[in-house]
Amino acid sequence: MIRAALIGAGEISLQHLACLHTLPGVTLAGVCDRSPALAECAADRFGAGAWFVDHRAMLDAVRPDVVHVTTPVASHFQLAMDALEAGAHVIVEKPVCVAHDQVLALLRSARDRRRVVIENYNYLFNAPVQRIGNLMKAGDLGEVVHVDVTLCLDLAHTHHLAGRAQASPDGSWHSEVICDFLPHLASLAHFFVGPHRAVRAQWSRPTSGPRLPLPEFRALIEAELATAALVFSARGQPDTFNVEVQGTKMRASAELYDRTLVVNRQGNDPGPIARLRSRLGAARALYTTAVGGFFTKLTDGRGAFDGLWSLLARTYAALESGAEPPVSPRQIAEVNDLVAALGAEESRF
């Protein structure tokens, strides 16, 4: 039986805890939060063995095999290091650390202790992204030519994010909201095009006024396998999280919020007929996956977090069997190298 514990009983922790509750061979040994009410409520709801307000006391008392860190990012590094020192594997919400050198130190510590650190790249494990990845591995996609990752999110009405979209104290613009999502954007690009070689990025400056400053971010990446473009927009509507992969044999587009997948295949018919066949096939695929995604949202309660459940299930299975984890230390290092390079490219427009 694998003993799991969680630090930080906020909103995202509910997905971690709900998933752990379903995993065979896993017991929730403890929940910790600075708020006694949150810690006790989460422990009662998900059947934890005990609850705590001090994470070191929890680590000493329950000796977990795996610790989930779901606190605000500024606390990730120390909490993860403490868990590693206590002998536990660590699953950390993104961003894994505030500073790039902290990421590298955390990975070194895990390697030295023969422990696993997983950064939550849950969107990589959503079914549409995995299907595109399988097409790529099988050669059906051909060579990857270019990848577009676009996230549009109405921050003005996303209350739990709104207060964090502010300029830094020195007046530069490095939105915490964008940085929250950069690991997702970067990990998706890295999944399809490999480690980056060069990047160019633009970051918006917040505007004055009574409404929330609306951050905008654009980046172009030259990578090992192909190029990629990343877009984060708080003004583009409607909300969407789209990944489009252009190959030499087909184009595949996944909408991660709606769980839809459209594949446009190269045909042998004359140009106009091939395009018509492709569009009809895409329409059927969109209808089928949209209907399936809608009913899944209504019935399973995971929302857009089905990739997190898949990631956690695969992580615990790997820990149980001694197999390689679904997110490797090299992958985390390369994704965070890309995130650091994008941050270094900050500019105003």
Short description:
The chain has 349 residues and is of the alpha/beta class. The protein is 42% helix and 22% strand.
Could you give the topology of this structure?
Layout: E1 2-7, H1 13-20, E2 26-32, H2 36-46, E3 51-52, H3 55-62, E4 66-69, H4 76-85, E5 89-92, H5 100-113, E6 117-119, H6 127-138, E7 144-152, H7 159-162, H8 176-193, E8 196-203, E9 216-223, E10 227-233, E11 240-247, E12 250-255, E13 260-265, H9 271-300, H10 306-321, H11 329-344
Parallel strand pairs: 1-2, 1-4, 2-3, 4-5, 5-6, 7-10
Antiparallel strand pairs: 7-11, 8-9, 9-10, 11-12, 12-13
Jot down its keywords.
349 residues; alpha/beta; Rossmann fold; Dihydrodipicolinate Reductase, domain 2; 2 domains; seven-stranded mixed β-sheet; six-stranded parallel β-sheet; globular
Strand order of the largest sheet: 8-9-10-7-11-12-13
Q: Which runs of at least 5 residues are low in confidence (pLDDT < 50)?
A: 162-174
Domains counted in the coordinates: how many? Answer: 2
**Structural class estimated from helices and strands:** alpha/beta
Q: How large a portion of the residues is in β-strands, by DSSP E?
A: 15-25%
The helix fraction, in percent, is 40-55%
Description:
The chain is α/β, with parallel strands linked by helices. The chain has 2 domains: 2-120, 3-Layer(aba) Sandwich (Rossmann fold), CATH 3.40.50.720; 124-307 and 337-344, Dihydrodipicolinate Reductase, domain 2. The protein has 11 helices and 13 strands. It has helices at residues 13-20, 36-46, 55-62, 76-85, 100-113, 127-138, 159-162, 176-193, 271-300, 306-321, 329-344, and strands at 2-7, 26-32, 51-52, 66-69, 89-92, 117-119, 144-152, 196-203, 216-223, 227-233, 240-247, 250-255, 260-265. The strands form 2 sheets. Strands 8-9-10-7-11-12-13 form a 7-stranded mixed sheet. Helix 8 packs across helix 11. The N and C termini lie far apart (54 Å).
